[in-house]
Amino acid sequence: MALQMTYGSYTWPHNPHTLNLRLSRRIAVHKGAFSGDSVQDMGEDIRVCSGAGDFYGPVAHDDFYRLLAIFERGGAELLALPGLTPFIARFKALDFTEKAGPQIISYNFTFIEDTKKSALSLGRVQFYTAAQGDNLWTISLKFGIDINDLLALNKNFSSPFDVKAGQTVKLY
Fold it and tell me: Domain of 169?
């Protein structure tokens, strides 16, 4: 899992000071005339990530313009948030505020999950360094990757349990 926030090829020089990840489910309530209401869980809704941060110092403007160029390019990219499973997202909004003071630019952002794309379809490869006690089963659960896909990507392991701490596992 990422320690530094990234979106495609862009890595934040400093993680945002505020990070919000909205997870929700699609729930439908059907009114019944005589049998009462029935509730149907239709699965997870798209994830929405928003946050705020600051660029500071003599390169504050350069940092912001690099982020702006990524926003203007559009498209779907792999969004990796600190400590969370990466997912494919689109850069929906970017706000900019230049603060009075020595070279400080504040920004707000919003990303929305793109469920029509996958990391494989984007040609992205992501790796994970195995920790003590990891195996391909636990890694597949940790990252939400089908075990068969993980096995296909990691033919160098003779079995799902043949993973040692420090080894590199291909995720996507």
Answer: 125-172
119-134 per-position pLDDT tens digit: 555 555 578 788 888 8
Query: What total of structural domains would you count in the chain?
Result: 2
Q: How far is CA 159 from CA 42, 115, 134, 150, 151, in A?
A: 35, 30, 13, 11, 8
How many C-beta atoms lie closer than 10 Å to residue 130's C-beta?
17
74-127 per-position pLDDT tens digit: 988 888 888 787 888 999 999 988 776 678 899 999 999 987 755 555 555 578
95 is a domain residue = yes
Q: Which two tokens stand for residue 172?
A: 């996507």
The radius of gyration of the chain from alpha carbons, rounded to an integer in Å, stands at 20
Q: Please tell me whether residues 90 and 171 are part of one structural domain.
A: no
- Do 106 and 73 lie in one domain? The reply is yes
